[in-house]
Amino acid sequence: MTNLILVVDDDRLMQTQLRGLLAASGYRVAQASNAQEALTIYAQLQPDLVLLDALMPGMDGFACCQQLQSLPGGDRTPVLMMTALYDEASVERAFAAGATDFITKPIHWPILRQRVRRLLEVNQVMQTLRQQTEQAQMQEMQLRIALEAARMGTWKWDILANQVTFSENLKTLFGLKEDTTHKSYETFLSYVHPEDRDRVNNSLHEAIETRAECELEFRVVLPDNSICWLVNKGVVFRDTSGKAVQMLGVDMDITKRKQSEDNLQQSEERFQILARATNDVVWDWNLVTNQLWWNNNVHTLYGYLPEQVSSDPTWWYERIHPEDRARIIADIGNLINSGQHFWSNEYRFRRADGSYAYIFDRAYAVRDSMGKPVRMIGAMMDISDRKRAQQELERQNMRSRLFADVTLKIRQSLQIDEILQTSVTEVQKLLQADRVLIFKMLSDGSGTVVKEEVVPGFPVTLGQNIIDPCFSEGYIEKYRQGRVGTINNVEEDNIEPCYAEFLGKLAVKANLVVPILQHTKMWGLLIAHQCAHPRYWNESETELLLQLANQIGIALAQAKLLEQETRQRQELARSNDELQEFAFVASHDLQEPLRKIKTFSDRLKVIASDSLSAQALDYLERMQNATRRMQTLIEDLLTLSRVTTRAQPFVSVNLFQITQEVLSDLEVTIQQEQAKVEIGELPTLKADPLQMRQLLQNLIINALKFHSPEEPPIVKIYSQILLSPLDPIAISTEKCQIIVEDNGIGFDEKYLDRIFNVFQRLHGRSEYEGTGIGLAICRKIVERHQGTITAESIRGQGAKFIVTLPMNLSF
């Protein structure tokens, strides 16, 4: 690209002439008519040369030139100042302002052309020199930074003058002061560690004599007495005659490397000690050479002779169990490729005798500075014992789970037939036996196969009455004491011939027999048969079958208890039904003669009271009182029997409304006793409305009756809602407590169980009236509603009766 020249002149004609002349010479031209415009254009275009008129209105050329120097690149752009005539003061002023040259007007084009060409050429040369200088300075700085970063320094040994010159970096490495740049060779040697001094001196002189390069490592003692390791490389220079005149070299601080090497050596020594001391098999895999080293434990623990062990990793891989091999190889490959350091896994490793050991192997991958793995160090721990214990624990847990599952199925039913059938079915599946049966034994050792589960193709024994010719009373006692009968092979085990013949008829090759006991009484036998082939019954199977037999015995005992309890309940229910029916009929039949007694006694009192003696009137009064008590008792008995015999369906009942109706019925009594009754919030629930009325009426009458003569009764009736802790959101689990609280005479809570029984009274009739049936009616109503009733009291401090009922009971 051609050079750009900026012409600055306030004379438009001069601008045009100069533009034409410069353009004709191949230059690009920009124009400005004043100094300010010139500065703006210069900042935008960065011209290669400025042709500047000295005399311009406003800012003259001298001031413009001076400001031009402060612009970016302005001090490196040549300025040719144009003056009207040669004036020495103007010339000095132009150069002082920063002009490169000047030319006077009128301008001769040949002179201007030569001046412009020369200024551009000189400026180009100056720019090149400046760039080279800057580049050299940059390279020198980069070298200095690199040497500092690498902790390197240069030196020169003038052999003839016996003077050694250190670079600034090397002085820093040696810990020397700034004024110690030049030292004698002997002074240099004095810095070298005494143990290395002779070796360094000999190596340097050997290089001089043999014309070889010198390279060696040595230590120097720094002024603070610390040690610095250096690696030295030097080259000898000779004159034309071949005489050594100087030696140039570079020293690099390798202290950290040496420390790392020492640490590595110590680490290797510790590694070897640990490898010899540990009980594990230690291995060291060089991933660069693909060589694998093993410690002696590979011989001690796994029985391999030294000549049998190879350093090829394939030897290791081939001894990993086939089922584990691909997994382990892939896992190690993932470690190598992933950039991670730690690896561990479990697998089976083949011993020299062909058996397998369970191994827990863990390793550490060593990587170079680029992250490439170069080494793996690992240790194989034999965990065979732990694995066997773990497997045994798992087997025990599995047996426990199976035992729990089978026991649950056996115990789910309380029907004897279902218990026995479930037992043989589940035990057969659990043991995978060909036949499982339950033998119900009689006292003489004979008995019947009551349940059986048998694989098709083998004889069926269900329902058979079996008499074992070899079975004696002594065997029954042994079984009762917990004996377990085990035969692994009928043909080879030492058993009585009669017993072998008996088992042969049933196609039995092996059997396992355990007793079913109820407490200490022999109930029968649980028997497992293997018919297809002999079978070794292990300890866990024997123990499992014995435990299941115990559970069968417990289940049978519970089923028997259930049968007894069911019969008792049925008998009790029948008796209760008969009793209720009798109470109802008797009460109903007694009402008519009792009504006549009451009627005639009332007439007798009206008609003959004047003619009767005082004693006769007393007898008559007693008869009437007894009649009234009998009437009340009969009515209460009828009410008690009607709780179940005349019950109504459950509907939605507003207890608040029921309570108000009861209080209305008892208004006279409340007024007579001067009682105060407070009703709190009461719920609406599903119940028998008549029985709820009876319940509340009895409880309120009870509270009004048993009050202290010194103070009128106060009765509080309220409720609270109870939520199930298992499901506080479910409406179906809601219950309510209805509480009737009074300030009466109370009672001792040791009588709590008595007060809800029929005809139970804590006070005599002379103190408080009543039949002793009211609270019994309350309990029966509450039980029909699947609720509970209880009371809290302290003698002399009132009582609190608490009724708990479901909110949404359906009946």
TrEMBL record:
Record has rRNA processing as a keyword: no
Domain Phytochrome chromophore attachment site: start-end pairs = 415-551
Recorded source organism is Chlorogloeopsis fritschii PCC 6912
Q: Which CDD domains match?
A: HisKA, PAS
Q: What is this protein called?
A: histidine kinase
Pfam hit, one: HisKA
Q: Which residues form the PAC domain?
A: 214-266, 343-395
**Ranges in a coiled coil:** none
Query: Which reaction equation describes what this protein catalyses?
Result: ATP + protein L-histidine = ADP + protein N-phospho-L-histidine
Task: Please report which protein family the annotation says this sequence is part of.
Answer: In the N-terminal section; belongs to the phytochrome family.
Function field: Photoreceptor which exists in two forms that are reversibly interconvertible by light: the R form that absorbs maximally in the red region of the spectrum and the FR form that absorbs maximally in the far-red region.
Question: Where's the Histidine kinase domain?
Answer: 585-809
List, alphabetically, the NCBIfam families matched: sensory_box
Look up keyword Transferase and say if it applies. Answer: yes
User: Where does the record place the PAS domain?
Assistant: 139-211, 267-339
Named from the GO MF annotations, one term is: phosphorelay sensor kinase activity
Q: Where is the Response regulatory domain?
A: 4-120
The EC number(s) given in the record are 2.7.13.3
Give the modified residues of type 4-aspartylphosphate. Answer: D53
Q: Which PANTHER family match?
A: PAC DOMAIN-CONTAINING PROTEIN, PHYTOCHROME-LIKE PROTEIN CPH1
Gene3D superfamilies this protein is in? 1.10.287.130, 2.10.70.100, 3.30.450.40, 3.40.50.2300, Histidine kinase-like ATPase, C-terminal domain, PAS domain
**Which keywords appear in this protein's UniProt record, sorted alphabetically?**
Kinase, Phosphoprotein, Transferase, Two-component regulatory system
Q: Domain of life, per the record?
A: Bacteria
